[in-house]
């Protein structure tokens, strides 16, 4: 198991450092961005504005979170592009496990609400 980086600021909702799963699932916009990234064709390039449009989130959200997605290895920068373009980093552990998780959940069928 990876060591927790306690230098991250605490989440105001529970006081624990914002790490691990919370980094990508802690905000609805990030969930939408990641879901969109998982649906993109392999090697599809995008800039922050394009990703915001594809994910149907604000440009501000994409601007805020693409850096985090890059830091955790989910996306990689495409060299020599301006504005900066990105693509899903299919070689990263994060992408590999998210793709597996997404596939496993999709195979289980649609989510059910308990009444």
Summary, kept brief:
The chain is built from five helices and two strands; from the N terminus they run H-H-H-H-E-E-H. With 115 residues, the protein is mainly alpha-helical. Strands 1-2 form a two-stranded antiparallel sheet.
Describe the protein in words:
The protein is mostly helical and 115 residues long. The protein has helices at residues 21-25, 28-39, 48-55, 59-71, 93-107, and strands at 75-78, 85-88. It has one domain (21-106): Winged helix-like DNA-binding domain superfamily/Winged helix DNA-binding domain (Arc Repressor Mutant, subunit A), CATH 1.10.10. The chain has a two-stranded antiparallel ribbon. Helix 2 (28-39) packs across helix 4 and helix 3 crosses helix 4 (59-71). The radius of gyration is 15 Å and the shape is globular.
């Amino acid at each position: 198991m990876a060591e927790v980086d306690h230098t991250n600021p605490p989440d105001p909702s529970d006081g624990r450092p914002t790490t691990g799963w919370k980094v990508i699932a802690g905000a609805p916009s990030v969930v939408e961005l990641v879901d969109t990234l998982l649906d993109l064709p392999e090697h599809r390039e995008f800039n922050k504005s394009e990703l915001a449009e594809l994910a149907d989130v604000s440009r501000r959200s994409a601007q805020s979170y693409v850096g985090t997605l890059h830091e955790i290895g989910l996306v990689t920068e495409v060299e020599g592009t301006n504005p900066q373009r990105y693509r899903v980093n299919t070689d990263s552990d994060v992408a590999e496990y998210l793709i597996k998780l997404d596939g496993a959940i999709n195979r289980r069928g649609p989510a059910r609400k308990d009444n």
